[in-house]
Design brief:
homotetramer, alpha/beta, TIM Barrel, 8-stranded parallel beta sheet, 12 helices, 2-dehydro-3-deoxy-phosphogluconate aldolase activity (chains A, B, C, D), carbohydrate metabolism (chains A, B, C, D), Aldolase_TIM (chains A, B, C, D)
């Protein structure tokens, strides 16, 4: 039962990645009890990072390599292969990739070929990152079965928990994480864990939720889930990807800079409003102190 | 009334762009009567090209600059700005960009900010490339109006022709092209033209269709449309993006290499089957000889 | 090239159908040049009418039987069969039916069986009323071909005109009408006509649009299309189904009562606002006088 | 923590409801430990039943009135009101209704008005039956809050469990049931229960699942969930609505006749194949003996 955080990528004002801030953030999250770090995910603006930036993110987190899932997906398979090879110098837990995206009507067999090539070349276990809402493709358990493709794990970002469960039924040895913040409780309880972007700013809550489940105190676990879901609701009003930078700064006490356009940072006024809203909310729950 | 071709990007076996083939192809299409060339579009695998590759495509086609619409979209706005600046050395007709993609739930105002920045910096007219099925966002006429954003043109890749018409109603001076092959006849007839991927392999048919419309022979125009739609149907069975390379080779008599993974080239057997199918179809219609 | 109006069903304050008003309306529309009347369609609240009410609508319009397409669809096939038999006493042009609706995941063959039974029993030609947005099912040309089901006609309510064209390509003898108000011009120009709910309140505009096309004056035809599309835009702000009653009253000078809950009539203030808005719009265009 | 079964409506060969079979089935389910019966739901072909048939279903089950939720939805609000009044003679637990369906683009306030009228007139608590996939409308907790409409309960047929949870967060006193068979375990565990069509044919499994949860044996509960999900998978291959009649006959030992067109009964060969498949599956699990 693992808490996996798809880590934010902090950018400097000039648009370059702030590796020091990335390291600080990862170290803090692991220290607070998060189990694994998912690098270059959607929350980390993976599809907006160049091949070189993806590499540097891994390099920056080399000290925590055994806790890292390294996302390598791109629309240029040569680059993807290069990233996979690059990862062989690091003792990471797994590589992961979303499917091709943007292009509509890709034949199923191209999607499968993509993942088969990853499996052939990767020195590490290969995890599927399934995110139909973003990519337009559902690399479902049925599709994997149809093409006899067995993968080591899956991050299924999907509001349908039954869909995530199906991976486990079809491939009992597969490591299955649902990737929705609002289903984290259930994913911890009945799958192998959760990949939760909110763990960037609320790591302690996730750890408490997990501990509640371990103790068998499901009611308390559900209280944490509701709290987390409420913060998701607040973040979405501002644009979740950018709000997460502000929320993390507010709750963790260090700056992560901001995102990079076209994921635009919140404007000053929005930042302040969000900070006030979240501080009020968390104080009302006694979480901040 | 213009025929715009979103030009295929030919790749060498090593994954690099084959600039010579790109030039040959562009030259041939223009000679056959195509009016404009849309560079780095979806058919050209734009989202799978690096910033450098996008630049080189423009450089390779510099001789035809006045016939070129240069697509600059990326998920890194610094790169996009660099591409726009790069274009200032070329006397192109316009730059264009699709909206941000992949990331779900981006606030409307970020989408608009993206295009506003293009307008601010671009030395050329700015065209919207609206493709909701690929990007997840509809930069609709209503959205543009809401934010008072007037653009010089739009390629609306959308099966709803009424949607394309709405741009014209809201912004009478806007250059409006529908981007669907199966609606090209209508787009030529009542908008400013069509952006049609099938014009890569069937340029003469598109020119004949346009000429029929100019002559007022709509019935004959519709015959060409049906023919084109039938070829789309055939291409989709194989994976349209890759099939277009084979179809163009078959009808135009020169090689364009192939696409680049994860847009995988057709396998030998598929190539042959597609060639046979298309030759049979075109011969039955007396087009090939 | 026919203009087909999916006629509004006028209701009395007690919820019963106002047959006299229905007759008056049909007579007026035909006199103004509308070609055919589609009874019990979506605009006529067909799915909200009982079997008996559907019969009475046909009875009330018996004088115009040869101009009538009689929609018989329901979720109880015994009722549907009864309606088909009932129609044998009337010399109507065709019966029509939407597919089953509401129930998700019906197997294709049940959908086809439904229409096959209509064909077996009907004394009149059978038209498909394809409306995927309402029913959840696309009875596409490909589906009909797959099951070897040839129908006499189709009303394809679909923003994708290419989809409507495909029926004609697959079944050249099929009578094909697109059912979208915003595509009526194109449907008149290149298919067998249009089924247009706005012809309830703007019959003369549709007739003028058709005449423009017949004369070859496409530019003028497009002017009418834009006008019609603008009225659709206005109507949708109020709830199109109910707004049509008010718009028809305003332009045609007689009352049609109102719809029946849960298609709620506009409130007094909304009615007045809509009337003012439409009168202003039409006067500005010189249509009303 | 309640198991609610949306009861099948058994039809005679002549298309009339077989009330005796309905009673037998209800009695058996309740005896086996199902808590409540949802009458005229989707599984019961509610939208395909006439107003009179809906009444007769309630009449037939009068002996179990206190265990009944009576679904009254129709597209004619006068009929709906009549059904609500009819229910006042029965000591039922609640009435319920899906929202209006079929008609696209109904304004939010019409949807809310519909439910407000139910609340005004109903002598019983009013439950929302939210089923966006079937109706096209999501009567979400946010929508209810926006219009200040508080309802006594909700059956949320929705693969997104977080959506169901939101009702509970917004309206803590609301009775919340998720309506998906594949999420029943979670719905029992953290909401007020489940509405599960599969409880028609697998009542004992649902009861065992519930008992496992009560005992705190979640692992065993999940085993039952997977079993149930597998049966859903099998049923869907045949057309779930019709397959349920066959499955119930097979597991419960009495006949329920069949559905009514256009929900067509399985053909002889399909029935036999399904029976074999399910018997094999259940025997392999030791459930049938």
């Amino acid at each position: 039962m693992e808490i996996v955080v798809p880590i934010l990528t902090p950018f400097n004002p000039d648009g370059s990645v702030n590796k020091e801030a990335l390291r600080t953030h990862a170290s803090n999250l692991l220290q607070k009890g998060v189990d694994l770090i998912f690098v270059n995910g959607t929350t980390g603006l993976g599809p907006a990072l160049s091949k070189e930036e993806k590499k540097e993110n891994l390099k920056a987190l080399a000290d925590f390599a055994d806790r890292i899932i390294f996302q390598v997906g791109e629309l240029n398979i040569d680059n993807v292969m290069e990233l996979v090879k690059f990862s062989s110098d690091y003792g990471i837990k797994a590589i992961a990739s979303y499917s091709p995206y943007y292009f509509p009507r890709l034949p199923e067999k191209w999607l499968i070929s993509y993942f088969k090539r990853l499996v052939e070349i990767s020195p590490h276990p290969v995890y599927l990152y399934n995110y139909p809402l973003a990519t337009g493709y559902d690399i479902s358990p049925k599709l994997l079965s149809k093409f006899n493709l067995e993968l080591a794990g899956v991050k299924d970002t999907n509001q349908d928990l039954a869909h995530s469960l199906e991976y486990k039924s079809a491939f009992p040895k597969m490591n299955v994480y649902n990737g929705s913040d609002t289903l984290a409780f259930y994913s911890l309880l009945t799958l192998d864990g959760t990949v939760a972007s909110m763990a960037n700013c609320l790591p302690t809550l996730f750890v408490e939720m997990k501990n509640s489940i371990v103790r068998g105190d499901l009611k308390r676990g559900m209280v944490y889930q509701r709290l987390i879901s409420s913060v998701v609701d607040i973040a979405r009003k501002y644009g979740q990807l950018s709000a997460l930078y502000v929320l993390t700064e507010t709750t963790q006490g260090y700056s992560l800079g901001g995102p990079r356009g076209p994921i635009f940072p919140l404007e000053e006024e929005e930042r302040n409003q969000l900070k006030r809203e979240i501080e009020l909310f968390l104080k009302s729950l006694g979480v901040l102190n």
